[in-house]
Amino acid sequence: MRQLRVMRNVHLGIKNLLLHKLRSLLTMLGMVFGVASVIAMLSIGEGASKDALEQIQKLGSTNIIISAQKPVEDQEISTTRSFMSVYGLLYDDEQRIREVFPAVEKTAPVKLVRKEGRLHERSLELRVVGTTPEWFELVHRRLVGGRPIVARDLDTHAPVVVLTEYGARRLLATEQTIGQLLRIGGDHFEVIGIVQSEEGGGAGIQLPDQEVDAYIPLNVARERYGDVTTRRTTGSQEREKVELHQLIVQVASNDEVESTSFGISAMLQRFHKKADYRVDVPLGLLRQAEATKRTFNIVLGSIAGISLLVGGIGIMNIMLANVTERTREIGVRRAIGAKRKQIVMQFLIETVVLSTVGGLLGIIVGVSIPFAVTLLSDMPTVIAPWSLILSVGISMTVGVLFGLYPAVRAANLDPIEALRHE
Amino acid sequence: MVSTNPESIVLLEEVRKTYLMGGEEVHALAGVSLKVERGVFCAIMGPSGSGKSTMLNLLGCLDRPTSGRYTLAGQDIGTLNDDRLSELRLKYLGFVFQSFNLIPQLTVRENIELPLFYLGYEAAECAKLATELAGRVGLGNRVNHRPTELSGGQQQRVAVARALANDPQLILADEPTGNLDSATGKQVMELLVDLNAHGKTIVMVTHEPDIAAYAQRRIHMLDGVIDRVEENA
After folding, report:
1. Residues A116, A234 within the same domain
2. Cα-flanking dihedrals φ and ψ of residue B16, to 5°?
3. Residue B150's domain spans which residues?
4. Looking at the structure, do residues A32 and A83 belong to the same domain, yes or no?
5. I need a labelling partner for B84 at 20 to 30 A (CA). Which of A42, A196, B1, B19 fits?
6. What is residue A74's predicted lDDT score, i.e. its pLDDT?
7. What span, in angstroms and rounded, lies between the C-alpha atoms of A41 and A303?
8. Nearest residue, CB atoms, B118 vs list A329, A337, A415
């Protein structure tokens, strides 16, 4: 019976809404923008966190990634003839980091060389990654076939290579992949395994792997290719000496990531005269995402708050006009025997219907805003289902809050006066 | 709740109603005693300012007396709160107004359903009873029309049907023909007379003698008191 009454009142509310279509629509605009801002805010914030979390998962949350970076001053002189720029991480850096910081559990040193990989008539420009077995533990990728590099490979200086799925497809096609001999530069390597690869980076930190990677034992890379690379360009040659291009450090737990990264930065600063490295902390992405989230929350939250307030006041205003307009109706209902609380319920439900319809329209607008944001700015957005439920909840709450006063006013009208009202 | 006094539905004992107007006390009712038995059709007459509207509001439980006692169907309404008064109106009373007072956004049927809705009837039952009542006042084919699509006489008949929906013990009519021409006014009066013939108690306020002539008893008011009572033989 109670449900029946509510449904009747909802029905009546919708009827009254439709009676003044333009008026209702204008009244609802505040709610529409308010709710739209709430949804946009939540979806942008949610998108930023989700993106960061995915990124962190790919990068490893307990990892610290230290990369060699060509110092600015070297970039300027490098056009001069036969200049050799020496920069990047040192073999000793790895040693020191491992010894100094107890929180450090594993390190994976990385040496990079660009070489052409060749198998029969196929060829692919590879990024040869000289590294240790730890790489495969710190850069978590699925093993598609064969095995990764193991400690024994380094002990025996084995000429073995692990390819990415992409590289394998490009070089080996459909042939039996594992066990093939691949020529990299001037040397032959036996393909022992294939791993998946992730591409890109996006929000700040480059992923350590690429799809053109070919992983070989670090000591083999050092013996075959040395630390000096020469690149000939027209009229000049560019020479670089880099011991290690990257160092991936894993600490025991998330709590130790930040302190350890500060320690590493401080230590590297002491041993490196030039700023020829950078330290990236994947976990820091979460902080960045939170900062983005906070900014958007403040901006859109204020818009939402103001819109909802203005929308609520607009609704209250219209409902007050409505009560005045329908004074006689209220008088009739009271004379027939409606109790005060039934009049309150009637007008309250009508207000909630108005604000909820506004909220639903707001959801439509609100869902399209993040869509447009993603389309125009490449910023990821995620519309969480709970944010839609929250929006409906907010609009209903606004309806109740701002509908209460007009409804109580309607109920407190003197029936005799109300019946006499012109 | 059945009345303990079967013959009288309305009992007024020395009822006074005093308003404060600009610091001065106005005695709208200055000591009225009245008894209305069940099944009676009575008219309250008098010039404006004689207290007949105040009397009707009081009888309709829309107001409480300043002093004196009003017993409706055996209940002293002076002691009841707003909710209980509403319940009383809902169960015992039916109103017919001069300006019909139908709710414009509702259809004829929905208007007639209103008392049933507040009584808590199921939707299907509401619709069935309302359609029946519309038929009884001769508007069975107009149930889905809006009040604005009806003539004045038709609107007043809808109002009568609405007043009947809760099967009231007392129908209160306030100048029911005041906004109608004499021909349609006559139809509405005949409807009321017919209801009375079927046992409904009716109290009607009017200042037109030929309308009052339909009633069995005419109560003439003057300056807040009952001046004289005429009874048909």
Report:
1. yes
2. -120, 145
3. 39-63+80-231
4. no
5. B19
6. 66
7. 10
8. A337
Nearest to B82 among A4, A335, A340 (CB): A340
Mean pLDDT (whole number) for A152-181: 84
Q: Which pLDDT score, from 0 to 100, does residue B3 have?
A: 44
**Cβ separation of B82 and A328 shorter than 8 Å?**
no
A390: helix, strand or coil: helix
- Taking CA–CA distances from A340, the nearest residue in chain B reads B83
The answer to whether position A328 is within a domain reads yes
DSSP B121: -
Once rounded to an integer, what is the mean pLDDT over residues A273-301? 84
Amino acid at B3: S
The complex's ipTM works out to 0.94
Same-domain status, A238 and A357: no
In a domain, A264, yes or no: no
Single pTM value for the model: 0.75
**DSSP-derived secondary structure letter, B33:** E
Q: Among A83-87, A116-120, B190-194, which stretch is predicted with the lowest mean pLDDT? A: A83-87
Provide the CATH number for the domain around residue B225.
3.40.50.300
Buried b / exposed e across A211-240, counting CB within 10 Å, b at 16+?
bbbbbbbbbbbbebbebeeeeeeeeeebbb
Same domain for A409 and A358, yes or no, is yes
Sheet of A228-233, strand order = A83-87, A236-242, A228-233
Indicate left, alpha or beta for A163 from its phi (over 0: left) and psi (-120 to 50: alpha): beta
Tell me which of A8, A327, A336, A422 to substitute to probe the interface with B (most B C-beta atoms closer than 10 Å).
A336
∠ CA A363-A366-A370 to the nearest 5 degrees? 140
* Shared domain check, A83 and A215: yes
Cβ within 8 Å of B, A 309-328: 328
Q: Which domain holds residue A209?
A: 63-252
Compare CB distances from A335 to B91, B95, B123 and report the shortest one's residue: B95
Q: How many structural domains are present in chain A?
A: 2
DSSP 3-state of A121: coil
Final residue belonging to a domain, choices A252, A275, A307: A252
Q: Do the domain assignments include residue A269?
A: no
